[in-house]
Amino acid sequence: QVQFVESGGGLVQLGGSLRLACGASGFTFSAYETAWYRQAPGKERDLVATISDFSARTNYADSVKGRFTISRDNSKSTVYLQMNSLKPEDTAIYLCNRRIGNMAYDSWGLGTQVTVSS
User: Fold this and answer.
1) CA–CA separation, 33 and 30 (whole Å)
2) Quick one: pLDDT at residue 55?
3) 112-117 and 103-104: which strand pairing?
C-alpha cells in the first residue's frame, strides 16, 4: 500500500524558513518523479515543485522560484522542500505524491500545515 507521511510544517513569521519532509512507502521510490503540492483554504490543490527520479531535473511554480528548493534522498525514500523567505500567501497544507504522466498518481496523505503570519 502506497503511503506518504508529510512533516515539518508549523507557524512562522513573514520572511522565515521551514524545511518539509515527506516519507514514502509502498513503491520503489527511486524509480519515480516526485512532487510537492499545496492547498490553501477554499482553493484548488496546486503544484509547487517537482524532482526527477535521480534529482537531475527540478521544476518550480513561478510563485516559489528562487525561494523554495526541492530535494530527495532515495536511500531514505524521502523528498524535502526547503522554504525560505516565506510569505502569507504560502499558507497552505503541503502534500507530496509521485507523478506518473505529469499527474499525481496515488492517494493523498494528510499533509503538513504551513502558516505564515505577517
Assistant:
1) 8
2) 83
3) unpaired
pLDDT digits (tens, 9 = 90+) for 55-92: 889 999 999 999 999 999 999 999 999 999 999 999 99
Of 24, 18, 10, the residue nearest 106 (C-alpha): 24
Radius of gyration of the chain (CA): 13
The predicted structure's pLDDT at residue 102: 87
How many C-beta atoms surround the C-beta of residue 6 within 10 A? 22
In this prediction, residue 23 has a pLDDT band, given cuts at 50, 70 and 90, of very high
- Contact predicate 96/79, CB 8 Å: yes
In whole angstroms, what is the distance from residue 118 CA to residue 108 CA? 29
Q: How many CB atoms lie within 10 A of CB 41?
A: 7
Phi and psi dihedrals of 35, rounded to 5? -145, 155
